[in-house]
Design brief:
It is built from seven helices and four strands; from the N terminus they run αββββαααααα. The longest helix is centred in the middle third of the chain and has 18 residues, at 74-91. The protein is of the alpha+beta class. It is 50% helix and 11% strand. Strands 1-2-3-4 form a four-stranded antiparallel beta sheet, covered by helices on one side. Residues 9-111 form the RWD domain. This is RWD domain-containing protein. It holds the Pfam family RWD.
Length: 179
């Protein structure tokens, strides 16, 4: 059999085995994602596997670069990849995706035993300061009324506004001192 025939047979087998399985996702023919563990599991990870042109005679490309894996330390990722590469070398020349996925599921605890989640610190103060700054700018901006809008307001309220504004102006200027 040629490499393409082997790939097509394995692809057909994977589709039938993992049909309806939410852990398995075919990105394209020859490119897959497989989630090891439940979504809520802190020790879960996603394997990205891509077949090169000569797969299964050559090793598939395996990575842990999915966004889901960002919380896994680089050391743990390296351990997982090295253990998977050992499995790949043992199965080179044969259809190995099912074997790799099942091996990873069975050995998830051992692969993730030294897992210490990496926490990406996000400074909220800087975003709050930016928000506060923009709010301050919004508060400083006063509503600008056109002359027509001002006239309408004065006409609606009548002379009482004129009286109060006159009194207000007089109170600002002050009065005579009674000494």
């Amino acid at each position: 059999m040629t490499a393409n025939e082997d790939q097509e047979m394995e692809l057909e087998a994977l589709r039938s085995i993992y049909e309806g399985d939410e852990c398995f996702k075919e990105i394209s023919p020859g490119s897959f994602q497989f989630r090891i563990g439940d979504l809520e599991d802190s020790k879960a990870f996603i394997l990205d596997v891509t077949w090169p042109e000569m797969y299964p005679e050559t090793a598939p490309q395996i990575s842990l670069d999915a966004f889901f894996n960002n919380r896994i330390s680089a050391e743990t990722k390296q351990l997982i990849l090295s253990k998977l590469e050992e499995q790949v070398e043992a199965n080179l020349g044969t259809a190995m995706m099912y074997t790799l996925f099942e091996w990873a599921k069975e050995n998830q605890e051992a692969l993730m035993e030294n897992h210490k989640p990496t926490v990406t610190a996000v400074t909220l103060t800087s975003s709050n300061e930016a928000t506060t700054g923009s709010m301050a700018k919004k508060k400083e901006k006063k509503e600008q009324l056109t002359k027509a809008q001002k006239r309408r307001i004065i006409n609606r309220t009548g002379t009482s506004v004129r009286l109060f504004s006159s009194l207000f102006q007089l109170s600002k200027t002050g009065g005579k001192d009674d000494d």
